[in-house]
Specification:
By secondary structure, the chain is mainly α. It is about 60% helix and about 0% strand. Helix 1 packs across helix 3, helix 1 runs antiparallel to helix 5 and helix 2 crosses helix 4. The radius of gyration is 20 Å and the shape is elongated.
């Protein structure tokens, strides 16, 4: 293994470790939960943390890992020593954000908002994001029968 390869493995392992630590600290996610949310297996994540890979990680998995944790994949690419300028795909513009969602995001980054309130906001959002959807035929409460 060359010195460059070793340095890249250490840099990427450090990036992954920090991402996992952040997910545990801010979201209380276990390794299993990180795997579920990112779509990257625990075994793969553990190999990345140990620097135990013979060939570079697949870009799609790195992107999925980062996106699942709300991180910019460019930081992971930098740790891996990948040239980000070559053949970059143009990212689609994000859809307009609902004003209520924007207000929640502002509260989550506001240092004046307590950690307890931020935790409550995250838990509520998590509940809403992953609850089962109602079938289309179910009527809204209070709606009169035709």
């Amino acid at each position: 293994m060359t010195e460059t390869t070793s340095a890249r493995k250490i840099a990427f392992a450090t990036f992954v470790r920090r991402a996992l630590d952040e997910a545990r600290a801010t979201r209380a996610w276990s390794g299993t939960e990180v795997s579920r949310r990112t779509g990257v297996s625990r075994q793969t994540i553990n190999r990345w943390v140990r620097g135990d890979w013979a060939s570079d990680p697949e870009a799609e998995r790195v992107v999925a890992f980062c996106e699942g944790l709300g991180l910019d994949p460019a930081a992971a690419f930098t740790a891996l020593g990948w040239d980000r300028t070559a053949s970059r795909r143009s990212a689609p513009s994000p859809p307009p954000m609902d004003p209520d969602v924007e207000a929640l995001l502002r509260r989550l980054v506001d240092p004046a908002v307590s950690d307890a309130e931020k935790f409550h906001i995250r838990e509520t959002i998590r509940y809403l994001a992953y609850r089962p959807t109602l079938p289309l035929g179910v009527r809204k409460r209070g709606e009169a029968a035709s």
